[in-house]
Inverse folding.
């Protein structure tokens, strides 16, 4: 597997992956208004890393610049459970200069367990348009 910084040529695929992965993972939400262009807004001014397996784009992660904040981590549903999310997360964690943070939707139990298995802890809760979320932290070893 390869993880690299994104290139503009990745945009069409990542737009599709972002739309499809949210519909597959966030089944409790009505995604009928979601669009391909949502990816652009969700990653604006963020550092994006793309995971490739045998030359195929299979996932991405985006970090808010200067914030040690993981904003997005999505894996193509057809490629989930193969270690790609773990590799991307570990790559992102290596970029942190202090405690890392993320928000995970409280109903996304699979994601919460995934982050906890990688050393993230729940610090607080909050509300968003998509529902309640958990603020999670990752402390550097």
């Amino acid at each position: 597997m390869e993880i690299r910084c994104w290139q503009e040529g990745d945009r069409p695929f990542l737009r599709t992956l972002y739309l499809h992965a949210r519909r597959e993972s966030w089944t409790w939400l009505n995604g009928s208004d979601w669009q391909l262009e949502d990816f652009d807004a969700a990653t604006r001014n963020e550092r994006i890393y793309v995971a490739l397996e045998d030359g195929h784009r299979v996932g991405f992660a985006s970090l808010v610049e200067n914030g040690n904040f993981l904003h997005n981590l999505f894996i193509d549903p057809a490629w989930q459970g193969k270690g790609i999310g773990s590799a991307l997360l570990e790559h992102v964690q290596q970029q942190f200069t202090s405690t890392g943070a993320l928000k995970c939707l409280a109903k996304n139990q699979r994601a919460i367990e995934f982050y906890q298995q990688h050393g993230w802890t729940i610090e607080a809760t909050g509300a968003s348009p998509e529902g309640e979320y958990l603020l999670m932290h990752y402390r550097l070893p």
About this structure: The chain has one domain: 2-138. Helices lie at 11-25, 38-43, 84-95, 109-117. The two ends are 25 Å apart (CA to CA).
